[in-house]
């Protein structure tokens, strides 16, 4: 698997990453929100004992205990999509196991006891599912999963019962957004049991025209069916976005180029940049790269900026707590350095 | 005298140019709007005969007859501030005599029979007045000026009677404009018999934050008094603008730098630029140069762009009639070339 942030990929690929997560719980142990810190930390030990059973996992993975970290460092893991908001909320008894390449994370004491997550670059759900399944099997050898013959895996929230699987694909859809077609896409997607969320999951806005399309239903379908349905929906959305882009360039060639080049010009020269404007401009530049209009900016630089310009990462990079205005200043400086001196 | 467009001047000088014009009419000849083409062309001959009397004037000056030119070429003379809207309106019987350096123009059959105009760079009204006076004397030797012992020079419009002199200074006042203080300045200036106009004189908007301050009163004051009053008012306005800039950079350092650098970034990268936005951005960049924030753009480049991005000049440079969108495209291209390849 490839770390999506560090992946160059194909320039015309609209998919940033493919993610699988499996929700698992242990039998006869209270769900995390009912568990005290002592119980939570014992569970972490149990999961570690089940996981670190070979030199392979011992060498390539490590456990990060959130309560041992500062707030900003934990926020950064969230900004990198390695952990969820729920895990952050349980800092005092939460941990995650992560590989050195930051493509796999096993969250412990999230909403569920265990959440196995894999992310790779581009559209490749099968590879991620394969790896997550292996980790799932490894853990299941030693841990007593809460499983019902009829219902499948039992989870804290009923929406996850069954496979406990959520597959999601992060896609860049600027043209459908600009031309106000995203509402139509959202409605269509909902009708086939899928859901569309923003850059940072449930409840987050689709800032920077980046959307996460994922399955809503986890029960009554096999893992393979969920993944193949999602892939079909994503393919259709990609087609619509590409058609919309062709239309845009045919009808508004100069206006589109203007928008794209100005965005790059502003990113290279601004002194203050707030997060919303930053994501909007990065999206315009990404569109330029994807359409072959901008040739001297790499996707890797854009992926890194997408993460590194988040509030927490900015503060971690400059190693101090910054005011909103200082963050806008540091964000602009970081972007100028990355884009001008590239 | 120095052509204001080609002048580098001091970077911190807010004055672009100083202009003097003298309105003169001939005795017993109808005013231009009452004159037919034949009469108008005869008058042009008479003025030429009076003017071209030495090898000096014959070598360095030439007559341009508007009816011999295309519309765009005549518009370009207007955009360069060499002729007035009124002269353009009389194309079929209007001409002007101009020096090779384009600092002096003698308009014939404008609102008045003769308008002697001199423009130089920076704040130097005396030098211009001196030269205009010499040309006035030269013409007066051969021509019978309409002059009344009590009223002075007689003119078509009563507001010009007396000295027939209008002195005006073109100043860049972005900070007073941004901070909404121009209305106060306008009121104060009007009370001391001065008037403030836009970049292209009477009735034109103050686009690009460039204003022309000039005397309103031509009667009851000597030429010297008019000029020294105007200089006093202009000095005061310059002081206020400079105070306003100091205040701006003290209170809004980063916001001001952001505005300035973004303007340069957009000018260097835009694909489409309409005239209003173009002047606004050029003003922001000029402010940056004047404040020492931008160091690698010269005033000469900015002065040239101020003129060359006008609709007519754009079309002359590309040698064809362009639609509004084609002009926006050509304007942006021209600016990119001048600023990026400088």
UniProtKB/TrEMBL annotation, chains A, B:
<feature type="binding site">
    <location>
        <begin position="197"/>
        <end position="202"/>
    </location>
    <ligand>
        <name>ATP</name>
    </ligand>
</feature>
<feature type="binding site">
    <location>
        <position position="81"/>
    </location>
    <ligand>
        <name>ATP</name>
    </ligand>
</feature>
<dbReference type="Pfam" id="PF00217">
    <property type="entry name" value="ATP-gua_Ptrans"/>
</dbReference>
<keyword id="KW-0808">Transferase</keyword>
<dbReference type="InterPro" id="IPR014746">
    <property type="entry name" value="Gln_synth/guanido_kin_cat_dom"/>
</dbReference>
<feature type="binding site">
    <location>
        <begin position="17"/>
        <end position="21"/>
    </location>
    <ligand>
        <name>ATP</name>
    </ligand>
</feature>
<dbReference type="InterPro" id="IPR023660">
    <property type="entry name" value="Arg_Kinase"/>
</dbReference>
<dbReference type="GO" id="GO:1990424">
    <property type="term" value="F:protein arginine kinase activity"/>
</dbReference>
<comment type="similarity">
    <text>Belongs to the ATP:guanido phosphotransferase family.</text>
</comment>
<dbReference type="InterPro" id="IPR000749">
    <property type="entry name" value="ATP-guanido_PTrfase"/>
</dbReference>
<comment type="function">
    <text>Catalyzes the specific phosphorylation of arginine residues in proteins.</text>
</comment>
<dbReference type="InterPro" id="IPR022415">
    <property type="entry name" value="ATP-guanido_PTrfase_AS"/>
</dbReference>
<feature type="short sequence motif" description="RDXXRA motif of the pArg binding pocket involved in allosteric regulation">
    <location>
        <begin position="327"/>
        <end position="332"/>
    </location>
</feature>
<keyword id="KW-0547">Nucleotide-binding</keyword>
<feature type="domain" description="Phosphagen kinase C-terminal">
    <location>
        <begin position="14"/>
        <end position="244"/>
    </location>
</feature>
<feature type="binding site">
    <location>
        <position position="115"/>
    </location>
    <ligand>
        <name>ATP</name>
    </ligand>
</feature>
<protein>
    <recommendedName>
        <fullName>Protein-arginine kinase</fullName>
        <ecNumber>2.7.14.1</ecNumber>
    </recommendedName>
</protein>
<keyword id="KW-0021">Allosteric enzyme</keyword>
<dbReference type="InterPro" id="IPR022414">
    <property type="entry name" value="ATP-guanido_PTrfase_cat"/>
</dbReference>
<keyword id="KW-0067">ATP-binding</keyword>
<keyword id="KW-0418">Kinase</keyword>
<feature type="binding site">
    <location>
        <begin position="166"/>
        <end position="170"/>
    </location>
    <ligand>
        <name>ATP</name>
    </ligand>
</feature>
